[in-house]
Amino acid sequence: MPDQQDLDALVVGAGFGGIYQLKQLLDLNLDVKLIDIAEDAGGTWHWNRYPGAMSDTESYLYRYSWDDDDLKSYPWHRTYLQGPEILEYLQHVVTRWNLRQHMQFKTELTGARWDDAAGRWIVGTSTGQTFRPKYLVTALGLLSRQNLPKIPGLDTFKGELCHTARWPQDLKLEGKRVGVIGNGSTGVQLITAIAKQVKQLVCFQRTPQYSVPSGDKEIDKEYRKDLNEKYPEIWKQAKESAFAFGFEESSRPTFSVSDEERDRIFEEAWQTGGGFRFMFETFGDISTDEAANDACAEFIRRKIRETVKDPETARKLQPTDYHARRPLCDSGYYQQFNRDNVDLIDLKETPITEITPDGIKLSNGDVVELDVIAFATGFDAVDGNYTRVLIEGRDGHTLKDHWDEVGPTSYLGVSVPKFPNMFMILGPNGPFTNLPPTIETQVEFITELISIAEKGGPVRIDGAVTNGHTNGSTNGHAHAESNGYTDGDTHAEGNGTNGVKPASPSLIEASSEAEEEWTDTCDKLSAGSLFRKTDSWIFGSNVPGKKPAVMFYFGGLANYRKVLGEVTEGGLKGFRQF
Q1: pLDDT tens profile 329-382
Q2: What would you report as the CA-atom Rg of the chain, rounded to the nearest whole angstrom?
Q3: Which of 42, 83, 149, 488 has its CA 20 to 30 A from that of 435?
């Protein structure tokens, strides 16, 4: 194994994004390698193996759209996929397309530095190897760097202590006293899954959640047959919608119908299941209008009161803020609090003061004795996996310094000024949508950027865009330079078929102006959203000391795809080539 290796491209991360990016770049006949710290492919689904782990996207859309035969033939049997099924599916895709030979596991990215003279990235790894790719594509995932609260006494606990993002596969919970800290999406899933098997379950709740039934159920052969026949239109609809969850988002105002009709619509959505469906298929103003949001929230609060038998527990479980976090769905979360072995502690009323050898000590002096403490405290989302390593672009400018100055920003969620030929999948200010269709969109866009760079880049000639030649224009080269583009070694004579000599590969990076404009666009789009008025990981407020910031594009996937199309059709507007 060489200590140093030159590559056309290096992909970091073997989840949904990295797997597809590797395939796309191999299809360009580039010399590509993918590295991942894990033992095998799977990304977030490799690490998040806690009991109850489940996608909240329906099974037929939580997969790739580009392999039609596999899309129709790969087996799945329920409305939603469990974590192990998703991991198995991703590893199946790797095997089906013979991608594992281009992957190197147990290899962590430890740092990356742009070498301007060489026109390459110098990438360090935990194995001691150095890779020198022309293109660096990071597929580190939105939710991968675990957020572990700094509670005094963590290292004194005598029992098992774990985080859901690094769940020990040999951990046995039967007959044990288990404490779960956190009740976001992960906590809801974990609590629901383990309540029936543990001796005692104590839920340490920081913030009550709005959650609706998932509607998970077995599917029959006719359902699957119908899906297979409709897949082209299903994917078209998803990619032309706002959230890409497989339904048409409603534009109907909440108060355009009677109270009775509104209640009927909510009840139908409750029975159907799905968090995003409940929020966005019912009415069109729940995330933007306070009164509409309260009507939706009150319906869910009423359901909690009807479900949970103990009035005091029901009170604690009812949120009082906006229903404006990531919409959750569950397989019986609230019902678990009717079990005799399940207790709820409200941390806003009785905070944790420390962890002791025997359990968790509360502010009232009580110690909750436990055998296992499970942290379901989420992630340092979006930028956390980038700022933990030194990534250095032009002139010694580091990604951490850049984001310390302006917050986690990018152009289009894929590129950052001063970091040439580095592209991020699901970087800051990408779309807030169902991830597989968004990942496909970004991977295909990044692949197009790299393809253009390999050809020498598009050249703007009197307002027209060509692929590395002047189309006979006498002033093309000068005009291209005046617009920030170059045409490499392009000449008007050359290679036989079109009279053009192939151009040299070029470098591509976002301009500072484009990043500022995109950041401003994301800021304005989120300004009217109630999501912005609610503390959550979506704006970075779940990590103590982290400055809240706009980290998503709230314009929807359809609009995002339109923007990317305008960029590629318009001479790579917002990018510099040199």
Answers
A1: 999 999 999 999 999 999 999 999 999 999 999 999 999 999 999 999 865 444
A2: 25
A3: 149
The residue written with tokens 């502690």 in the block is: 345
Are the beta carbons of 310 and 335 closer than 8 angstroms?
no
Tokens found for residue 169: 């596969």
CA separation for the pair 454, 442 (Å, rounded): 18
Residue 308 near residue 302, CB atoms below 8 Å: no
Distance (Å, rounded) from C-alpha 94 to C-alpha 39? 14
Distance CA 420, CA 414 (A): 11
Per-residue DSSP letters for 520-560? HHHHHHHHT-GGGGS-SGGGTTTSTTPPP---EETT-HHHH
Which residues of the chain are in CATH 3.50.50.60 domains? 4-145+381-455+509-577
| CA atoms of 230 and 219, how far apart (whole Å) | 16
Residue with tokens 């009785």: 350
Residues of the chain with pLDDT under 70: 1-2, 142-147, 378-387, 406, 457-505, 535-549
Q: Are 90 and 64 in contact (CB under 8 A)?
A: no
Q: Tell me which residue has tokens 């979006």.
A: 382
Q: How far apart are CA 106 and CA 15, in angstroms?
A: 14
4-145+381-455+509-577 placed in CATH 1.10.860.10: no
pLDDT at 386: 65
Assess contact for 435 and 18: CB atoms under 8 A: no
Q: Give φ, ψ of 79 to 5 degrees.
A: -60, -35
Burial of 343 (0-12, 13-18, 19+ CB in 10 A): middle
What angle in degrees, to the nearest 10, is found between the helix axes of 435-454 and 557-569?
10
Quote the pTM value.
Answer: 0.88
Q: Give the C-alpha separation, 238 to 359, whole Å.
A: 47
E strands within 277-341?
328-330
Residue 471's region, left for phi above 0, alpha for psi from -120 to 50, else beta, is left
Q: Is residue 241 a contact partner of residue 181, using CB atoms and an 8 Å limit?
A: no
Residue 377 near residue 149, CB atoms below 8 Å? yes
Residue 545 tokens read as 């000391």
